[in-house]
Amino acid sequence: MQNFSEKVIFTADNNAQFGRHLKAAIDVEAGDVLIEESPLLVTTHWECEQMKCAKCCEDSFVICKKCNFFPLCMDCTEHDPFECEFFCNATKAISKNLLINNYALNSIIKLLMVIENPKSLDSCTNLTPNNFKLNEYRDTEMWMDHATNIVQPLLHSGLMDCLRNLQKAKGDMRDADFLHKLCILIDANAFEVSSKVTGDSLKGLYVHASKMPHHCVPNTATAIDDDYNMKIYAAVPIKAGEVIYNSYTNPLMGTVQRQHHLRLTRHIECQCFRCRDPTELDTHMSSLKCKQCPDGYAICSHGKWQCLDCQAITDPVFAQKLLVQASEDIGNANGDVMTYEELLRKYSSDFHPNHFLLIDIKQNIATVLRAVLINSMREPNKDILRRRLELCEEILPVVRAVIPGYSKLYAIALYEYLLSFLELAELDFRSKEIPKDMYIEKLHVAREIALESKDLLSFEPPNSPEGHLVRRIAIQQEQIEESLSKFENK
């Protein structure tokens, strides 16, 4: 499945910033489908140690009996015929234990098989942007890591000498630079997908979707179903001629952290309007509390930290040490809710309430508290429910600001808020802490929350994690309507 909407045009101009990219051919409404695409390849992360089935990517404990090379799961008896036949012959020249002994090679071997196959070779050429410069990556930390764990082991394996079709089609590209290029293309073009059964994180390569440049406030949303088919749709209205963007980093990180992640994983220097705005769209997700005045916040512009109110300067060394220490403390909390709460109290005097590190702490607290509520054998604790509501109320506006339009993250956060909101309302009503009319009022609020959350996921495939969430929201909606019908008619 490779479908381009007529609302999208592929631009191959020599744009120094984007290279090849996609634009809106006409005005696009929010929710309009732009691309539908099956993956060129679904594979494992470099660091994956548990072998995965060559066909379905679930955990594997056996080896294909035909090629004696690729792992299979207990439910799959065969995998791609081309790669199986290739290794039936290639294992005469290379060790059949190559993948078992160095599973980090799995992704690049799978991509080499796609390139070696004449039927899929042309699709691979479209993965390379026309502004790709290999020398920009040379001698970086990522380059050295790939050299040690991927490139050199593969060159010494003898596998490259078996790639006859690739040699004929493209000339001899079986050297170290070629393998480095493939590693970078996998890193730069991969979308995170989840395996169907275990939900383990995998990498999916999509030819058309890879043409979307990055923006920290994207105008598209991505939906991937259980069969790894991708649908790209407009998250917000897009005017004709505007570039179609995706986001390749965590929107709930601060600017410095997002940019570091993009440099590390995709060699991108983002200059989007959010990255250029020291206030991060007035969210202040990177702002520090000023130490010289009671209500001011210091923002960082060109490496200089200055208070917006009193203009006082904050020492950049102090700011960096504070960020490092807070990050380390959060990492050492080990899921302990009391530790998270203490860290939140401690660092609230240093950071803006919306600071990405405080948001991270709040998310962690909310997650732990949900687990407590789910696993408790007793009636839900009202204080825990109220705390979760407080946290969600602080997180939701930030998510809405940095991910406008159709947003899965915002929809999920709304759903989490809905669960605690409904449960607390029911407990308060049963214990007679609120009268019937107030309970009915809360049910109406819950109805609106559920509707908004469900609407934000209305374009998600039914057989996707978000599609399953839509069905859970529908169950909540039914329960809300039953309660309203019961109490409004009394």
TrEMBL record:
It comes from the Eukaryota. Gene3D superfamilies: 1.10.220.160, 6.10.140.2220, SET domain. Residues 19-248 form the SET domain. GO terms for molecular function: N-methyltransferase activity; protein methyltransferase activity; S-adenosylmethionine-dependent methyltransferase activity. Pfam families: SET. This is Protein msta. The gene is 101899251.
